[in-house]
Amino acid sequence: MKVLTAMEFEGIRIDEGFLNDYSKELEKEAKAAEESVYAQAGVRFNLASPKQLGEVLFDKMQIDPKAKKTKTGQYATGEDVLLKLASKNKIVDDILVFREFTKLKSTYVDALPLMINIKTGRVHTSYAQAVAVTGRLSSNNPNLQNIPIRTERGREIRKAFIPRDKDHVLISADYSQIELRIVAAISGDENMCEAFKTGKDIHNATAAKVFNVAEKEVTKEMRYKAKSVNFGIIYGQGAFGLAENLGISRTEAKEIIDNYKKQFPNIQKYMDDTIHFAQEHGYVQTLMGRKRWLRDINSANFTVRAFAERNAINSPIQGSAADMIKLAMIKIHREFNKHNFKSKMLLQVHDELVFDAHRSEVEKIKPIILDCMQHALALPNDVPTDAELGVGENWLEAH
């Protein structure tokens, strides 16, 4: 609590000028995407209305003869539906662009300046420790945990987060593939532990095993598929989910998953054992013994039970990662106080910590931050923990 209070109290400076300019730019681009949609549809309508959009796409343009309807009888036009159709018609791409840009503009670019505290001139998020069931911190006003990182336009928003003055820079420290390391450590899978111990690129090493080729022969596409399996497996993803994700056939997806399970047998064992433990005890726990209760684990309803099983597999992994970064934050906070540093820890976003670092202290605090993060929680089976660190004039540059 003391650590979070200190961080909330510090807040972070926001570059209002940058956001104002970016807002205009997003508006212009969203408008261009919108006009492009109308031109292709041959009709003007309210693009923000799912009902009208569904009618234009599926009745007028007949983009998908198998289009599904919702309970209310209108066509489903959610992001998942549109993403599958994006390759079929450019209009869908433009709709997705329009949605992304208008959401970025209203949720972040226009909202952040309104949250600046008049007294401090900074934005102060509020952290909650007991909202996310996995034990991760959540934040609101503004919610920093879901500032988009996957798209180029979303990443740009990080440029708006800047150091407090010209004597400071931002430092971003990030755990590297922490959840996969925890999977390797908890399952004790020999092949996966070995890859981390020898410092290999885990997705490359996985691809080599799954596709049965030498590591230097792994193609970009193979690595991408292996990465998808690596992350999908820990969320209990099956062949259907993987096929959807990668846009491949279910047969190919099943083959990839079967190969994966052959090459990393202990991961399957961990998943089976964890579900079995949850069914018997009604909970699962993190490496530190923090429990998550799963009351639906023995439900007679298949869908409800499958959801609980996925949570059983994932919670010890995400929960242990959450415990680890919290321990690291406590250690860093103590070290900074002990040395009476001017630098401050400002933000925690998933596996990443952001600091306002005084230029004179940058070289002193870098090794302290990395050491605290790497030795916060020793993983079983000697799997090493790795963290990376960047310095910059804004959050994007530091990340």
The CATH architecture of the largest domain can be named as: Up-down Bundle
Alpha-carbon Rg, integer: 23 Å
User: Given the structure, what is the number of helices?
Assistant: 16
Q: In order across it, which strands form the biggest sheet?
A: 9-10-6-11
N-to-C terminal Cα separation, in Å? 26 Å
Uncertain runs are none
Total beta strand runs: 11
Count of discrete domains: 2
Query: Could you say what the CATH topology of the largest domain is called?
Result: Taq DNA Polymerase, Chain T, domain 4
- Classified by CATH, the class of the largest domain is Mainly Alpha
- What percent of the residues sit in helical stretches (DSSP H or I)? 40-55%
| pLDDT averaged residue by residue | 94
State the order of secondary-structure elements, H for helix, E for strand.
Answer: HEHHHHEEEHEEHHHHHHHEEHEEHEH
CATH homologous superfamily assignment of the largest domain = Taq DNA Polymerase, Chain T, domain 4
Q: Kindly estimate the percentage of residues that lie in beta strands according to DSSP.
A: 5-15%
Give the helices and strands, then pairings.
Blueprint: H1 2-10, E1 12-14, H2 16-41, H3 50-60, H4 79-85, H5 90-109, E2 122-123, E3 126-128, E4 138-140, H6 152-155, E5 161-162, E6 168-175, H7 178-187, H8 190-197, H9 202-210, H10 220-233, H11 239-246, H12 250-263, H13 265-281, E7 283-285, E8 291-293, H14 302-338, E9 344-349, E10 352-358, H15 362-374, E11 387-392, H16 395-398
Antiparallel strand pairs: 1-2, 1-5, 3-4, 6-10, 6-11, 7-8, 9-10
